Amino acid sequence: MAGQNRLASETSPYLRQHADNPVDWYPWGDEAFARARALDRPVLLSVGYSACHWCHVMAHESFEDDATAELVNERFVAVKVDREERPDVDAVYMEAVQSLTGQGGWPMTVFLTPDGRPFFGGTYFPKERRGGMPAFSDVCLAIDQHWREDRGQLDEQAGQLTDSLGRLSQLRPADHLPAREGLAAAARLVTGQHDARFGGFGRAPKFPHTMSLELLLRHHAGTGDPLALTAVETSLDAMASGGIYDHLGGGFARYSTDDRWLVPHFEKMLYDNALLVSVYTHALQVTGAPRYRQVVEETIAYVLRDLGQPAGGFSSAEDADSEGEEGRFYVWSADEVASVAPQVADWYGVTPEGNWEGTNILWRPERGALARPAAVEEGRAALFATRLGRVRPGLDDKVLTEWNALLVAALAEAGAAFGRDDWVTAAATCADFLLRELRGPDGRWLRSWQAEGGARHLAYAADHGALLGAFLSLHEATGEARWVVAARRVADDLLELFWDDEAGGVFTAGRDAEQLITRTKDLMDNATPSANSLAAVGLARLAVLVDEERYRSAAGAIVRLVGALSLQHPTAFAHLLVAVDLLTAAPVEVVVAGERPDLVRAVQRRYRPRTVLSWGEPLDGPLWLGRSPGAAYVCRAYSCLLPATEEAALLAQLDEAEAHPGA
């Protein structure tokens, strides 16, 4: 189409958002860097994602501006990257920006030499100088001047910065696994960082930190520590009561801009909602609190309704903006509420002056009180119906393997715990979609799928790690052996394509992928579990099911690589500590043979973080040898208790086995 740049043919919705920019964008690839070499110009790399509010702001201010675009086109080769499609590119240059500035974020703006080495970077730059931030055009002019007049210094800086990248990926493994006693100390460190007043960890902006909450739940399950459970309940109640939770339609925004979870950054991400479904499910299993069931049911309803696609996959995110304004879809004036549902004004904290920029973000002033009286529920439904008439936020409809796999695991676990076969079916349908659409003709997993362009980009270690966990959770939820077969294939691919033969652990990108200026390892948990955490936990779980030492050994090698760091900095390695727990305990193995749904449900109802369940179709391997139909078998470390044929006997055996996790 006339007037569009090279991004018009991309499958990423984020890249296509920039197809009409006057900036002469290139997608990441050889063509862009060959052009930079031919013109002897630096590369302007801009990295973001479709639901990123400040990415939209910078695009509107600078990339849609003809004068700014002319400056960029004359002096740089401009490259646009969707960080969700290319996490490998994002990781390399985010580390560079953090080294240069001490902080990171999106939009990420980095200037590179034509061979891809970074020499200057930052995040959002405004069109005009303000708040101590230079204008984007001034930055471009200064970079161009240095490029022409002081090339040697820039080249030296690029070399030094490039040499410093990937240092965390060069860790050497310890000789032994961490001592199990360190887990309790790590949990105490996490509890010590908890905000006892408002929940969560640290100060604003506040993110859900689901993995830290999961760590505390595991610690409580093993020790009965009341402080750990209090921290979890305080945080979950505060988030579900705050404006970060969508009280009309369900689901959570990405983070809160304030300490008390009132004002969200309104974008909704698939991965956040998947991880939050899991932690609220586990909290319900531990506490029995109905409010957690409500949050799970409403969040899953949101995901299925608003992110689900007809083919079975799930879209990545909903934007923070609609009609060019952040949060417009979600906020209300007092008059609007009064005209539609006046009975809910007090319930949702609605006031004439509002609580955010003259408008009202709906929230629950009484923390944890979520069960709605009939009149309030009637008003909520009326507000929700009214909201359906508004212009919705933009939808990023690409399907990412990793994020969909996280959702599959969450749906499977919640469905099994709540007896919701429809959720388990949705999980299996999504998994079948991934198996069908997100693999190449050679069986190689791919990262991203979009209805208009199909699947593209080789999948990363995080995709494989998330798939491994998803398939294992589906086996536990369905009893189908095919999911263990699929898990083994993913595990084999993970070890073949990503394993570091020298130090252990998995690299971000496979050995068959594009080689960037450094090969990174995704080690620290962030908004999602790291690739190495996912791999370690999945391989440890799989090893218990199929009793294959190479999976257990690989999981142990990852833990030995970062185990000491994980105990010292548990909030950065919270999911990795799950693998430490699994490898230093003697996991409980439960086989339910024959048609005994009552015994299966007895295992699934309760939170059992160190228990691996197999039922339904027998698996190859020793776990199923000699199992007589009609009974449950509880085993640990190659030793099994007497077959249990009654629920009470099975629960007693499980309680006894789980009471001594280090045995």
List keywords for this structure.
Glutaredoxin, 663 residues, single chain, 23 helices, Glycosyltransferase
Strand content: 5-15%
Low-confidence stretches: none
How far apart are the termini?
67 Å
- Helix segment tally: 23
Overall number of structural domains: 4
Rounded mean pLDDT is 95
Structural class: alpha+beta
Biggest sheet, open or closed, and with what strands and sense? Answer: 5 strands, mixed
Give helix % range. Answer: 40-55%
**What is the radius of gyration computed over CA atoms, rounded to a whole number of angstroms?**
25 Å
Counted beta strands:
19
Explain how this protein is built:
The chain has four domains: 6-167, Glutaredoxin (3-Layer(aba) Sandwich); 181-397, no CATH class; 399-584, Alpha/alpha barrel (Glycosyltransferase); 588-658, no CATH class. The chain is 47% helix and 10% strand. It has 23 helices and 19 strands. A five-stranded mixed beta sheet has the order 1-3-2-4-5, sandwiched between helices. The chain has a four-stranded mixed beta sheet with strand order 17-16-18-19, sandwiched between helices. Helix 11 packs antiparallel against helix 12, helix 11 packs parallel to helix 15 (401-418) and helix 15 (401-418) packs parallel to helix 17 (461-478). The termini are far apart. The model has no long low-confidence stretch (mean pLDDT 95).
